[in-house]
Amino acid sequence: MSSNFSVPLKAIWSDYRNTLTMNVLPGEHTVETTVGKLGKSMYKHVSREFSLQSLELGTIDMPARYYPDVDPSTMLRDCGHSGLTVVFTPDPQTQDLIKTELARNAQGPQTYVQPNTTSTASSSSTANPPQVTMDSQLKEMLASMQASMQTQMEEMRVKHENIRVLNDMAFKEIKTVRNENERILKENGSMHNKIERILKENGSMHNKIESMGNQNERILKENERILKENERILKENGSMHNKIESMGNQIESMRHENERISTKNDSLHLDNERIHSELASVRKDLEAARNQHTEDVEALRILTLSLVPLHLRVLLDRARGRILEHLGHESWEGLRSTRSIHQLANEIFNSLKTNRVSYSPSYKAIYFLCSYNNIRRAGNAAAHTAKEEEVRHAVQTQPLDSQDREYLENLFRYAYDGNEV
Q1: Scanning 148, 276, 381, 387, which has its CA 20 to 30 A from the CA of 261?
Q2: 274 within some domain
């Protein structure tokens, strides 16, 4: 994916003047590839600063450390706007190489001061020629560079450590404040719920008091109504007495009717007993018929199982007949001749495959057909009259997970032109 922001980069070699800063578009580069390119730029920069014209970049090794500490396979865009700082630390071999180059560049033709030939004899002594050397300067320069690099690395480490500590403290403070805010919000919510509950209870109590006042008024009115109702009931009691006498007469009439209905129920009970007796006889006959049907079904199943070997023999003979037709032989004995079962199976399988016969059986099925198996032993000459559906049913009686079932299904498709069991 493309990015529309640039990542700031900083490369530090040993001192301030050898610090490179730049902004690059991250693209699809990883930190490792970016550091490699940044290292080449640093090598050229160092060579130019120290005038190391003959320094071969491919021969020096300066390990790099990343700030912040990221995995080399990390994508550069993941560094974000905070950027990436790379510190290159030259190893001893690189330091010796740079030292040698600096010494070589520093050495020139030695200059000697000739003695003054016009001086007097008393001043005829000659001065020693000065010799220019860069060893001390080189050592001071390397020491200064190492000290500067270590100081910068230490400052960066302290800075990153302080930032990490501040971040941790800020994170903890934020977490504490967030927890406190959550607790206050929960307490406020709880107080709000309590206040609402109290207000609802007060409203409920007020409603109850009003309800009780209304109920008392209603009770008073109800008492007045009951009093009037009692007076009316007393007046009606006289009328009710006459009605009760009338109801007594009706009850006596109903008692006589109940006696008549009881007599009718006794007659119906006798009829029910007779019907139950007849139903018991019918159930007995039905049970006998059911037992006879079960015996007939079992006999039919035994008869069907006895026909299975015959139908399977039909399938084997029909498959052999199809093979004789496809291979052009008159009899199975003529086809077999002196061949062994293995040779015969190979011959049939290869011939069917060569002739591209439709629904050709597998090698194992052909081997099963050529061998004298239990299915052939159980057959007899009457099996040749079985129909296709009878043969299919015979194959279906074999266990699904047996090899015989697999071979028989294979031979069935071959013998009946691809029809499935």
Answers
A1: 276
A2: no
Q: Which domain holds residue 31?
A: 7-106
- Any idea what DSSP says for residue 125? P
Q: What element of type H or E holds 300?
A: helix 135-327
Which residues 6+ apart lie within 8 Å of 319 measured at CB? Answer: 361, 369, 411, 414, 415
Is-contact 73 92, C-beta < 8 A? no
Of 106, 136, 171, the domain-final residue: 106
Sequence-separated (6 or more) residues with CB below 8 Å from residue 127: 113, 115
The answer to whether the CB of 80 falls within 8 A of the CB of 29 is: no
Q: From CA 383, how far away is CA 319, in angstroms rounded?
A: 13
DSSP 8-state assignment for residue 88: E
Tokens of 104: 């070589």
Phi/psi of residue 42, nearest 5 degrees? -65, -40
- Looking at the structure of the chain, the number of domains it has is 2
- Asked if the model's pLDDT at residue 147 lies above 90, the reply is no
Over residues 117-128, the mean pLDDT reads 32
Asked whether residue 327 is domain-assigned, the answer is yes
CA distance 10 to 20: 6
Backbone angles phi, psi at 68, to 5 degrees: -70, 165
With bands split at pLDDT 50, 70 and 90, how would you rate the model's confidence at 308? confident
Beta-bridge partner residues of 87: 12, 65
Q: CA-CA distance, 396 to 231, in Å (whole number)?
A: 94
Whether 297 maps to a domain, the answer reads no
Q: How is residue 309 written in tokens?
A: 């070997």
Neighbour-count burial for 270-309, b at 16+ CB within 10 Å, e otherwise: eeeeeeeeeeeeeeeeeeeeeeeeeeeeeeeeeeeeebbb
Distance of CA 44 to the CA centre of its chain: 52
**What's the CA gap between 99 and 92, in Å, rounded?**
10
